[in-house]
Amino acid sequence: MADPLWEPGLIVREAGADSELTIILLHGLGADMQDLAGIAEAMEGSRRVRWLFPNAPVRSVTLNGGALMRAWYDIYDFEGTAGEDGDGLTAMAGALGALLAAERARSARPIVLGGFSQGGAMALYTALHARESVACVLALSAYLPRKDLLPAAAVDSPTIFMAHGTFDPIIPLDLARHCFGLLEARGYHGLWREYAMGHTIVDEELADAERFLWAARAAGRHGERT
After folding, report:
1. Alpha helices (H) in 126-222, listed in sequence order
2. Which of 44, 65, 122, 154 has its CA 20 to 30 A from that of 134?
3. Choosing from 74, 133, 199, 208, which is the catalytic residue?
4. How do residues 79-123 score in pLDDT, each as one tens digit?
5. What's the whole-model pTM score?
């Protein structure tokens, strides 16, 4: 289902009259826009949010033997020892930047950019490396791409909620912890949480993420410590 805002496909769930946030969530590797759509019903304050769930384009993924699947960029390995798809990350951050610009043009509501697994990594890269203006980033079971090039935080940098499973067999917990430590060292503010889970999303995690988002919203500015 093509959409004029996002050609690969986009689910939009409108907010109620008391709308306060726009949340854009990016699915994981090989999934699609339907994968995270249930979060819109799981959060108690969902009616105060305009939700966008875009599809990643279909591309060949080296990690999976070159198979074609929905992916935000190519992945060689999760440790970065084989290099990273810098061109793919930059191109996709530019495309997502256009989607963010369209949202900013339609409303002054703060925008949250987030995602699960590769989608969470893409959200971090877009918000931090590409300097796209978002209020918060939700990085669920994710990691930080191109961490060697991470810029220092600025006054208007987003706050970051980063959460991971202690039994994650896909993206190592130590890698995710290391990435959050780098973010703190570079001056970013946020919250780190661990849950007794694998590579998935649990209700407790969503509840913590929602509390984080509304606390940041109440603070009224980017970069606010929550």
Report:
1. 173-185, 203-219
2. 44
3. 199
4. 666 689 999 999 999 999 999 999 999 888 899 999 999 999 999
5. 0.93
